[in-house]
Amino acid sequence: MIQDEDLNLLLSELSHRYGYDFTNYARASLKRRVNRLLAVDRFASFAELLYKVKNDPDYLPHVVEQLTVNVTEMFRDPSLFRTLREQVLPVLATHPLIRVWHAGCSTGEEVYSLAIMLEEANLLHKSLLYATDINPTVIENIRRGMFPIGNIRQYTENYLQSGGRKDFSSYYQAQYEWAKFDERLRANTIVATHNLVSDRSFNEFQLILCRNVLIYFDKELQDKALTLFDNSLEKLGFLVLGSKENLRFSPIAASYTQLENKEKVWRKMR
Amino acid sequence: MAENALNQLRYLVIGGSAGSLEVILDLVTHLPALPHAVVILVVHRKKDNDSILVDLLSYRTKLPVREVEDKETISPDTIYLAPPDYHLLIERADLFSLDISEKVHFSRPSIDVTFESVAEAFGDRVIGILLSGANADGAVGMAKIRKAGGYTIVQDPATADVGYMPQQALDLTPVDSILPAAEIPGLLEKLLRIQ
Ligand SMILES: C[S@@+](CC[C@H](N)C(=O)[O-])C[C@H]1O[C@@H](n2cnc3c(N)ncnc32)[C@H](O)[C@@H]1O
After folding, report:
1. How far is the centre of ligand 1, averaged over its atoms, from the C-alpha of A22 (Å)?
2. Distance CA B189, CA B195 (A)
3. Whose CA is closest to A24, among A216, A213, A200, A199?
4. Residue minimizing CA distance to atom 11 of ligand 1
5. Which 3-state string (H, E, C) describes B101-162?
6. What is the Cα–Cα distance from B116 to A141, expressed in whole angstroms?
7. Which of A28, A33, A212 is facing B100, going by the closest CB pair?
8. CATH fold of the domain at B3-192
């Protein structure tokens, strides 16, 4: 496993040369990512990787992509989506315009999942979905709306478990190894890069989802991101975190109440 | 906790897959009193059955059983369970972290990932136990624990429900003990007493 000193060298290079600051990322997983990068690109030594990063700016996007973990799923944690469907969307429905922020949305599976639910609740036409991620490569896929066909069986199961009643296949067309989702689902989606470490709040939302991103941050950076969400959320808005994440020990905790069913959904009370 | 108190802790990491559930439940029932030990379980299982396992374990032991949440503090005399669909890592001597990255050996949580992380963080204070399974997960992790100076125990493949996983470990690395499940608690008692 890569040594701390080496990791620090790489991080300071990425930060000073390119403005990507990973210094407050959780170390254990970050080290695994660097190890993986060393293996995937067959570097003989860490020094070689460092040399490449210093001297080849074109290599940077690949580094960012490899250091961040992009794993995602449609309707991942179906019981959470059921809660959104049954308890959150009815509240959002009372607003003339619904603004949602998917922070750290990766390739967009969660965004399409929510769009499907909004459409089924007849709310999509008055919704704006902001889909952001640090990694410009992954968000490209949101415009394409193509997901590997091999995952569809799992997604269909998730969809049904989340309370979906339609024929899931009515939302996409199979094209060889891809499922291409209907373009109307992303008509109200705005895609942009946004770095939770260094970028600011850019709007006010009624619903913010940031799942399985904070696990990659240390506590200090988690608190910073949560404060950013707090500044971007309307009073009585909803904040959704990943199934093993919590805002209990954060500075914003006092203003939030978790839903009674213990899903990772908090409401901003003041 | 104070630094020197942390330095005295022992870390018992147990990996199991197909056919290991009964063994784990039995092991937990017979765990010797474990002053100053942290127990970490990595079990391959279906996502749906998660909370059931915590209940099954809690029923058999007085120690608190926790399915780990992100950045949870590591406390002694506690049984920690890797949550379904996350890899479990040691972030600092007193802190867990979770990772949702690619599956390893088709598994998340992966036994290798946790064993390796525990070996790196705690070296010779680790006792690794690998149980029944139909998967190659855990073999590399056992090798790493041993290399870092930890003590390695493999369930005797001949007596395991599914011998493949323990056999994979034995094919890859020498280990300290190969035992039928029923004899593991007795050995643990000795190991944890010695120090
Ligand atoms: C494991 S994925 C989670 C995807 C989705 N939210 C889900 O739960 O299925 C983590 C995502 O966080 C993004 N990410 C990591 N650091 C970030 C940062 N500083 N700002 C914004 N996004 C970040 C990664 O690029 C990656 O796409």
Report:
1. 13
2. 11
3. A216
4. A104
5. CCCECCECCCHHHHHHHHHHHHHHHEEEEECCCCCCCCHHHHHHHHHCCCEEEEECCCCCCC
6. 34
7. A212
8. Rossmann fold (3.40.50)
- Asked if residue A101 lies in contact with residue A137, where contact means CB atoms within 8 angstroms, the answer is no
Token pair of A136, please?
């410009």
Q: pLDDT tens digits for A97-143?
A: 999 999 999 999 999 999 999 999 999 999 999 999 999 999 999 99
Residue showing tokens 């780990």: B68
Residue whose CB lies within 8 A of the most ligand 1 atoms, among A73, A212, A213, for a mutation test: A213
Angle of helix A46-55 versus helix A4-18 axis, rounded to 10:
10
Chain A CB within 8 Å of residue B98 CB:
yes
Q: Is the CB of residue A114 less than 8 Å from the CB of residue A205?
A: no
Cβ distance A71 to B100 less than 8 Å, yes or no, reads: yes
Cβ proximity of A268 and A237 under 8 Å:
yes
Interface probe, candidates A80, A110, A215, A262, chain B, greatest B C-beta count within 10 A: A215
Given an 8 Å threshold on Cβ–Cβ distance, is A32 in contact with B113? yes
Q: What is the distance between the alpha carbons of residues A25 and A43, in angstroms, rounded to a whole number?
A: 23
| Annotated active-site residue in B20, B112, B117, B137 | B137
- Condensed to tens digits (0 to 9), the pLDDT of residues A156-196 reads 999 999 999 999 999 999 999 999 999 999 999 999 999 99
- Cα of B6 from ligand 1 centre, angstroms: 33
A74 phi/psi in degrees, rounded to 5: -80, 140
Cβ(A79) to ligand 1 under 6 A?
no
Task: Kindly list the structural domains of chain A, giving each domain's residue range(s) and its CATH number in brackets, ordered by start.
Answer: 4-68 (no CATH), 78-268 (3.40.50.150)
What is the identity of the amino acid at B125? R
How far apart are alpha carbons B21 and A99 in whole angstroms? 46
Are the beta carbons of B91 and A28 separated by less than 8 Å? yes
- The mean pLDDT of A72-82, rounded to a whole number, is 97
Chain A residue numbers with beta carbons less than 8 Å from the beta carbon of B97 are 26, 28-29, 215
- Size (chain A), residues: 270
Q: Is the CB of A70 under 6 A from ligand 1?
A: yes
- Calculate how close chain A gets to B70, using CA atoms only, in Å: 6
**B121's tokens:** 């963080």
Give the relative orientation of helices A136-144 and A60-67 as an angle to the nearest 10 degrees: 80
For residue A72 and ligand 1, the question of a CB distance below 6 A is answered with: yes
In tens, the pLDDT along B57-106 reads 999 999 999 999 999 999 999 999 999 999 999 999 999 999 999 999 99
CB-based contacts of A248, cutoff 8 Å, min separation 6: none
